[in-house]
């Protein structure tokens, strides 16, 4: 939704452009005298009360206007291609229309009205799918510029003629893929849209020339199309007869362009257009949201390895946007590992055992806010750190770093449901760039024994980093194995389904044969009974 303030008739108004999956709606509402404009959601409902979104997110990023304008203008088309068929007197089949290789002077005079007859080789304008390099689609065509629009005509007699091909597929490949076509009749001959078998052709303009008593050439124009094509202008005059000249040209070209735009509203094209529009709109929304997040820094977090302190007792929210660069991969691994088949190392995370600690505890505690009682923070970050250590320790490490938090009170109670999320995300922290002893940590209450333990933790940092990298590699391999198993199972399911279909077909055939045998046995008389009767 786009909003713009306008001043009209001495009063401020808000112009609204609401983009929906089906269409784009425009509205103009006056600004209240209080100066307080309604919320964006209320404005949207003023334009369309069927809007069912909960809220709108402000778009604040570079080139947002350009991206939105590109979406709005994707329906604007300045290039068109139309077919031109030549129908001789008495021709009533598709093969006869596409097979015409010779034309009359009247037809050549008519196509000169439509546009300029050009040489296709090295043509610089719109080519409408014709070959301008090698001449595979003929040497000449009819081209016209009409009010900043480019039009290419697929004139069937100018396209290559294939000897021995009754359907002339080379010509039909171009004319049959157009949406609107002109049928030029040498003389008045019946024509119906069903004569041309095409999924695309939806409207036809039939032009029939005739001469008046004084020898002047006039053109009779008729319009026909499929039943689901709505009306399009300009309206035919009464009688629908035109003189040769500029008036006929402008009427035909305008009618052709409007006919194509109207055909897009037919069921077949409307359904395709709606799917395309919905896909483009969803892509635009996702791209604007992503660029806004990047521009504002929301969800980017700090540098890799940095952890922002959280209030005590505040759990880390899943998908809050504060995860590190590798969180997407870890989220994928977490989805693959079903809780019902969780490995023992992951089960250890849920218990939050405080006896297995790592140098990550040191890093977390350095960023925690001290409490008045113990000088340490008991935030959820420290809990997630202990959980992350348990993943590494259970993965095969025979040693653990000195117990820095051994003086903290009894073991922690079980973590919240999201502790699994916190532990996996904590593995992504950079162990080399974030584990260090700051000269000014603000933790003056730390004892000398703890300081010595911290020094030993820093010494063990490279080994811990290697172990974490190995753990990530192992998780990647597990993910690939699970994906391979999934593909194998899908193939087996497909084979079983095919087997079921085959067995059902065999069962149906056997049942049919059984019924046939029973009917045959009922019809054939008993020979012994027949002999006794005789």
Give, in spatial order, the strands making up the sheet with the most strands.
5-6-7-4-8-9-10-11
Corresponding CATH architecture of the largest domain? 3-Layer(aba) Sandwich
CATH fold category name of the largest domain: Rossmann fold
What does the largest sheet look like?
A: 8 strands, mixed
What is the helix content?
Answer: 40-55%
Which series of helices and strands comes N to C? Answer: EEEHHEHHEEEHEEEEHHHHHHHHHHH
The CATH homologous superfamily of the largest domain is called: Rap/Ran-GAP
At the first level of CATH, the class of the largest domain is Alpha Beta
N-to-C CA distance: 97 Å
Strand content: 5-15%
Number of helical segments with 4 or more residues: 16
Helix-strand category: alpha/beta
Number of spatially distinct domains: 3
Unreliable sequence segments? 300-326, 338-456, 529-534
Shape field:
extended
Kindly state the number of beta strands. Answer: 11
Question: Which key features would you list for this structure?
Answer:
single chain, 534 residues, alpha/beta, Arylsulfatase, C-terminal domain, Rossmann fold, 3 domains, 8-stranded mixed β-sheet, 3-stranded antiparallel β-sheet, 42% helix, 14% strand
3D structure, described in words:
Residues 374-394 have a biased composition (Low complexity). Residues 68-284 form the Rap-GAP domain. Helix content is 42%, strand content 14%. It has helices spanning 40-47, 64-72, 94-98, 105-114, 169-175, 246-263, 267-296, 327-336, 344-351, 359-367, 380-394, 419-426, 431-434, 448-459, 461-523, 527-533, and strands at residues 2-8, 11-19, 24-30, 79-87, 116-119, 140-145, 150-155, 180-185, 203-211, 217-225, 241-243. A hairpin with a 4-residue loop joins strand 6 and strand 7 (150-155). The longest helix is centred in the C-terminal third of the chain and has 63 residues, at 461-523. The model is unreliable at 300-326, 338-456 and 529-534 (pLDDT under 50).
């Amino acid at each position: 939704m786009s909003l713009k303030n306008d001043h009209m008739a001495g009063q401020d108004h808000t112009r609204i452009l609401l983009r929906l999956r089906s269409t784009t709606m425009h509205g103009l509402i006056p600004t209240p005298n209080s100066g307080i404009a309604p919320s964006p959601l209320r404005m949207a409902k003023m334009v369309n009360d069927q809007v069912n979104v909960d809220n709108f997110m402000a778009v604040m990023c570079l080139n947002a206007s350009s991206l939105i304008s590109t979406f709005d203008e994707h329906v604007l088309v300045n290039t068109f291609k139309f077919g031109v068929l030549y129908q001789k007197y008495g021709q009533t089949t598709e093969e006869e229309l596409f097979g015409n290789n010779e034309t009359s002077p009247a037809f050549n005079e008519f196509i000169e009205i439509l546009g300029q007859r050009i040489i296709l080789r090295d043509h610089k304008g719109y080519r409408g799918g014709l070959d301008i390099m090698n001449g595979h689609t003929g040497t000449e065509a009819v081209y016209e510029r009409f009010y900043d629009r480019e039009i290419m005509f697929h004139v069937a007699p100018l396209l290559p003629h294939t000897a021995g091909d009754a359907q002339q597929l080379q010509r039909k490949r171009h004319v049959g893929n157009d949406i609107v076509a002109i049928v030029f009749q040498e003389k008045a001959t019946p024509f119906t849209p069903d004569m041309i078998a095409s999924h695309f052709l939806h409207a036809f303009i039939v032009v029939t020339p005739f001469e008046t008593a004084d020898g002047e050439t006039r053109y009779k124009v008729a319009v026909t199309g499929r039943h689901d094509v709505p009306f399009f202008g300009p309206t035919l005059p009464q009688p629908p007869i035109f003189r040769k000249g500029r008036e006929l040209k402008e009427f035909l070209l305008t009618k052709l362009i409007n006919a194509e735009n109207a055909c897009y509203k037919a069921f077949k094209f409307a359904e395709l257009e709606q799917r395309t529009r919905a896909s483009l709109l969803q892509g635009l929304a996702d791209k604007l949201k992503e660029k806004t997040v990047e521009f504002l820094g929301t969800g980017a977090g700090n540098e890799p390895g940095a952890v922002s302190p959280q209030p005590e007792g505040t759990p880390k929210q899943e998908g809050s946007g504060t995860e590190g660069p590798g969180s997407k991969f870890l989220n994928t691994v977490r989805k693959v590992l079903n809780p019902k088949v969780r490995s023992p190392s992951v089960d250890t995370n849920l218990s939050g055992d405080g006896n297995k600690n790592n140098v990550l505890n040191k890093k977390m505690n350095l960023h925690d806010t001290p409490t008045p009682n113990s000088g340490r923070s008991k935030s959820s970050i420290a809990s997630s750190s202990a959980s992350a250590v348990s993943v590494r320790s259970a993965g095969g490490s025979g040693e653990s770093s000195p117990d820095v938090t051994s003086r903290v009170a009894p073991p922690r109670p079980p973590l919240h449901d999201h502790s699994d999320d916190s532990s996996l995300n904590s593995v992504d922290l950079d162990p080399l760039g974030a584990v260090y002893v700051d000269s000014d940590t603000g933790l003056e209450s730390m004892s000398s024994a703890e300081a010595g333990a911290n020094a030993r933790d820093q010494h063990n940092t490279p080994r811990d980093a290697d172990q974490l990298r190995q753990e990530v590699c192992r998780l990647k391999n597990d993910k690939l194995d699970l994906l391979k198993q999934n593909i194998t199972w899908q193939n087996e399911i497909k084979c079983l389904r095919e087997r079921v279909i085959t067995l059902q077909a065999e069962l149906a055939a056997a049942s049919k044969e059984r019924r046939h045998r029973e009917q045959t046995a009922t019809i054939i008389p008993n020979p012994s009974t027949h002999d006794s009767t005789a």
